[in-house]
Every structure is written in C-alpha cells, then in structure tokens.
Inverse folding.
C-alpha cells in the first residue's frame, strides 16, 4: 500500500503574475523550487488564502532570484496578482517510509525571497 504524504511546501508566497494565455502550469522562482525540494514538472496543489480556491497543476522553472509566482492558463482564473498562496507537493510512500519522513517547508519573505 502507498500513501500520499506531504513532501514539500512553499508557505505564503505572493502571486506576482497571472497569464491566462499561457499553456498551463505555475511558474516558480528556481531558488524557491530548490529550497522546497520541488522539481520542474512536478504536480503541486495551490491553495489560495485570499479566496479559498484549491487547484492542481505542474511546475515550470522561473528565473532564479526573481521571486516569480505566476499562475498560467486556466489556473490564472483562480488567483489575482497579490493573492497569498501555499504551494504543496506530495509523494507516494509506504507506511514504513511515512513514519520517518520529514517534509520540507520554506517560509519566504513578503517579496517571495528566501530568508
């Protein structure tokens, strides 16, 4: 049996762009991706603290050090620039792995930069 376990979280970052006419996904500053152990193409859940929306999409690398959090395609309808979101990834694990696994969580500053 495998369980879906919280693997990584980027906690309370500000949406910097919403690009409706892009193919889809979320673009995240590569520094934030590295710090949170999130990979390009990885499925993530985005929780919007401003309006309660929850969506799933995949990650695209954004410019390193830019602070970019850009919702693309249909996801752009779920948030406005300035909204605060939490980005969460999950991993499949056996119950034995889950008992000892420690997720990664990062808490960037108000400009989406690592503290």
């Amino acid at each position: 049996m495998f369980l879906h376990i919280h693997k990584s979280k980027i906690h309370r970052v500000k949406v910097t762009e919403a690009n409706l006419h892009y193919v889809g996904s979320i673009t995240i500053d590569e520094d934030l991706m590295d710090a949170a152990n999130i990979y390009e193409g990885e499925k993530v859940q985005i929780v919007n603290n401003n309006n309660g929306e929850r969506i799933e999409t995949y990650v695209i690398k954004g410019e390193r050090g830019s602070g970019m959090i850009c919702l693309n395609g249909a996801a752009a309808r779920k948030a406005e620039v300035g909204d605060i979101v939490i980005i969460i990834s999950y991993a499949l694990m056996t119950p034995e792995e889950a008992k000892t696994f420690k997720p990664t969580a990062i808490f960037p500053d108000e400009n989406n930069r690592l503290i």
